[in-house]
Amino acid sequence: MPPVISVKQLTKTYASGFHALKNIDLDIRRGEIFTLLGPNGAGKTTLINVICGIVTPSGGTVLADGHDIVADYRAARSIIGLVPQELTTDAFESVWATVNFSRGLFGKPRDTALCEKLLRELSLWEKKDNRIMTLSGGMKRRVMIAKALSHEPQILFLDEPSAGVDVELRRDMWDMVRSLRASGVTIILTTHYIEEAEQMADRIGVISRGELIVVEEKAALMRKLGKKQLKLQLKHPLARVPGALAGRALELSPGGMELVYTFDTQGEDTGIEALLHALGENGIAIRDLRSSESSLEDIFVSLVRAQA
């Protein structure tokens, strides 16, 4: 099956000379949740804005469901919904009018049942007659989501959608995202909440300084780049790691009461059995032990630092 979004050799250079995007190649599969991670200024929003037709690329091509975003702009844009970072909507319009008008902008016939369904799912129905200016920040974010979904897009971009919103909205929003994905909608998400990416994503891309440095299945990325640690609580403190153990990936905690052993999850031999044997030979008694593994946040930080 061809990708729903295909990006080839995409570049963006601003008039100032700043290279925001550098030869981006990316295929996004139909019906997946793809999460784009990167530090501030990495190029996440620029990439989204180019695909959505808001920013003109300097080079390369982007196809949205086979439609070139430049040569066939209307067809490409009609299948894309965007929830931008900034809360930009008509402050003096009512919630109901704003969502209905947004649907009409894409040439879609009036569908009051659909608009009502969206507002109810986003807990906006009781606010439908309120002017946007009277709403809280979280409610305005809900309106932006309803607007983005009003024309029934097949591709939905969520650019930092949960920034500054309450826990209830985040939960409702992710329930809706899962429902949309189940119906076949492709979701592209950027977030600073790494736990959201860890929970929601099928695949993850990491962008740094305008370059896409990794694209991987979430589970495969965590297996490939994740590390596990074995924390050994000692019965008696150590002043330092004995010389006989110096060749192993061991760190002694402050106070000398814990040894931390880091090992590769992909290795055929973790080395744990040999380590425990060596500890015994050196008279180091263990009170307790526990294991932990890298989170997606750990992996993200290590990738970005390696690129710096």
Structure characterization notes:
- This protein has 308 residues and is of the alpha/beta class.
- It folds into two domains: 5-222, P-loop containing nucleotide triphosphate hydrolases (Rossmann fold); 227-307, Alpha-Beta Plaits, CATH 3.30.70.
- Helix content is 33%, strand content 28%.
- The protein is built from ten helices and 14 strands.
- The chain has helices at 44-51, 73-78, 95-105, 112-121, 137-149, 167-182, 194-200, 218-225, 272-281, 296-307, and strands at residues 5-13, 19-28, 33-37, 59-64, 67-68, 80-83, 155-159, 186-190, 203-208, 211-217, 227-234, 250-252, 258-264, 286-293.
- The strands form three sheets. It has a six-stranded mixed sheet with strand order 6-7-8-3-9-10, with helices on both faces.
- Strand 12 (250-252) and strand 13 (258-264) form a beta hairpin.
- Helix 3 runs parallel beside helix 5.
- The two termini are 36 Å apart.
- The mean pLDDT is 86.
